[in-house]
Amino acid sequence: MGKRRLFISTGEVSGDLQGAILIESLFAQARLQGIELEIVAIGGPRMAAAGADLIGDTQRISSIGLLEALPHLMPMLLLKKQVERYLEAHPPDLVILIDYIAVNTPMGSFVRQRFPKVPIVYYIAPQEWAWSINDKNTNAIARITDRLLAIFPEEARYYEGHGLPVTFVGHPLVDRIATFPSREAARAELGIPPEQIAVVLSAASRQQELKYLVPRVFAAAQQIQAQLPQVKFWIPLAIAEFEPLVRSFVEQYGLRAEILPPDQGKTVLAAADLAIAKSGTINLELALLKVPQVVVYALNPITAWLGRHVLRFKIPTFACPVNLVQMQPVVTELLQEEMTPENICQAVMVQITPEARARQRQGYDAMAEALGKPGVSDRAAQEILLMLNGFSQPSA
């Protein structure tokens, strides 16, 4: 049998990270089975570094919200056409979709119509199980998916309840966290003295977040700095090109802060005493590292108003992945109007106390147990290779 071609579709910084982890396991498991793989993808630089041939870079055309998506609409349509032409000329043997519902459901529909016998795996499915206001998106996912690899227990239950073949593999960060340095090694590498309180500010992996999150987070940091003279802020960049604007905010708010390139993100998270972080994958990384955190997020106020009053969208009980794992309030979430500098500062000052830190770590321990055992990415890769060879395990 000749080389087998996989096509992977994802977007954003977190999708690029999860895609890269999966690609490494796919190549490793394929070598063990004597399978020669070619992986083509739309994603980002981490996936390219892991061995994928990128058809297009999706990191900078992702957004959350109605108005926020408009500038990216034409680039997305052009990318979709580009990918369709590529797949027509180079048909895949299997397709893997990772999150990114705005692009992946149309992409999956194209593959299903044009290549009806090509299996489609959805890995890290959109969080319809937490955010859905109706079954429209869930049904669209069901129509294009031959097997869903679930990373959250509640995700597995939800999609099984809607008739999808599901395998719970666990969360890939369970494996990734083992590659982080120890707290002691990380603080030594960054030169953080024992008496310094290191607070991570991680608020932007999308362009819109530079406008709606960063100013409020940095204003809160200014207030925290006034109350904690021993604090220093550490700002890991998700995207290197954000550095000039982030630096201008640091100067504007007079912060004692260090800006770090993306490749030092793991080190600074491991070294942190506390983090103010936007809702997303980073929350799980911090939880698995047992770093206390305050979680924030806000959209364009017009988008939020349209969602509430026109689309009748209701914010679910929780938004942060850490709280979603077991539907328990492990970390403080400050969303939309609640995300004020004063509220952020107050939450940090509460969370930095020994009692609050101990409570949060207990919640982290319970959450970590629900994320599955090590070997997640290998299990996902094995399931994908089984489907590639024409077999599929029963749902678990």
Structural write-up:
The structure is a single chain. The protein has 396 residues and is an alpha/beta fold. Helices cover 50% and strands 16% of the residues. The strands form two sheets. The protein has a seven-stranded parallel β-sheet with strand order 3-2-1-4-5-6-7, sandwiched between helices. A six-stranded parallel β-sheet has the order 10-9-8-11-12-13, sandwiched between helices. It has helices at residues 12-32, 45-49, 66-89, 101-114, 128-131, 136-144, 153-161, 173-176, 183-190, 207-212, 214-227, 243-253, 265-271, 281-288, 301-309, 321-324, 341-351, 354-370, 376-388; strands at 4-9, 37-43, 53-57, 94-98, 120-123, 147-150, 166-168, 197-202, 231-236, 257-260, 274-278, 293-297, 332-335. The chain is built from 19 helices and 13 strands. The chain folds into two domains: 4-170 and 373-388, Glycogen Phosphorylase B (Rossmann fold); 178-370, Glycogen Phosphorylase B (Rossmann fold), CATH 3.40.50. α11 (214-227) packs across α17 (341-351).
At the fold tier of CATH, the topology name of the largest domain is Rossmann fold
Helix content: 40-55%
**Alpha-beta content class:** alpha/beta
Strand order of the largest sheet: 3-2-1-4-5-6-7
Q: So what's the CATH class of the largest domain?
A: Alpha Beta
Count of beta strands: 13
Going by CATH, the architecture of the largest domain would be 3-Layer(aba) Sandwich
Oligomeric state of this protein = single chain
Largest sheet: 7 strands, parallel
Radius of gyration: 21 Å
Please give the domain count: 2
Low-confidence stretches: 392-396
Percentage of residues in strands? 15-25%
